[in-house]
């Protein structure tokens, strides 16, 4: 299957923002349930946010700071991350079913 491709990671200071994007394989991606997960250094992978056809869900740790949304014209699902904290530092992965991207690194300095 065509892998998902994440982009938008980088290094920022605490309080700043980043937008991550996940590009999926064609128009069918628009109907998939898509999730963002992250793996902080030395820790297990954890859920961040997900979107399906009629709802979104967020981990408690990111509610009010992160927003997940679709850009159907681009076959992407993006994650707007505001008010970033050092504890948001992680490799962020996009997921749809059994399809995962390779991840994009987000580093937040204090």
| Mean pLDDT across all amino acids | 94
Count of DSSP E strands?
A: 11
What is the terminal separation in angstroms? 39 Å
Helix/strand order, N-terminal first: EEEEEEEEEEE
Multimeric organization: single chain
The residue ranges in which pLDDT falls below 50 over 5 or more consecutive positions are none
Q: What structural class do helix, strand and pairing data support?
A: mainly beta
Description:
By secondary structure, the protein is an all-beta fold. It has no helices and eleven strands. Strand 4 (34-39) and strand 5 (46-51) form a beta hairpin. The mean pLDDT is 94.
What key phrases describe this protein's structure?
seven-stranded mixed beta sheet, four-stranded antiparallel beta sheet, single chain, 0% helix, 110 residues, 11 strands, 50% strand, mainly beta
Question: How would the blueprint of this fold be written?
Answer:
Layout: E1 5-7, E2 10-13, E3 18-23, E4 34-39, E5 46-51, E6 56-58, E7 66-71, E8 76-81, E9 90-96, E10 99-100, E11 104-109
Parallel strand pairs: 2-11
Antiparallel strand pairs: 1-3, 3-8, 4-5, 4-9, 5-6, 7-8, 9-10, 9-11
Concise structural overview:
Helices cover 0% and strands 50% of the residues. By secondary structure, it is mostly beta strands. The chain starts with a strand and ends with a strand.
